[in-house]
Specification:
With 80 residues, this protein is mainly beta. It contains no helices and five strands. It has one domain. Helices cover 0% and strands 32% of the residues. The strands form two sheets. A three-stranded antiparallel β-sheet has the order 2-1-5, with no helix packed on it.
Length: 80
């Protein structure tokens, strides 16, 4: 099992989606969203842009509160 990861388009940092799976192939082909622990924005992603962090123990921790950031679409974080 591993944690499904995406890249934050604002910071370029790896971000956990909070989804634990045994493989990316088992996911449906849909657009999903994740609130980003790196910038606070909500990012859309598909399984084609995600990868599996095998083990992923370091990504299971919940990110603390962060100050609202300006998202790439111009909205403030949390205003979506």
């Amino acid at each position: 099992m591993g944690i499904l990861m995406i890249n934050c388009p604002s910071t370029g940092h790896a971000v956990s989606t909070g989804i634990e799976v045994s493989g990316v192939d088992q996911l449906p082909t849909v657009v999903a969203t994740t609130k980003c622990s790196a910038c606070g924005c909500v990012h859309e992603w598909t399984k084609d842009s995600a990868w599996l962090a095998v083990g992923g123990d370091q990504y299971r921790e919940v990110a603390g509160d962060r100050a609202p950031a300006k998202c790439m679409n111009g909205h403030r974080a949390g205003a979506h």
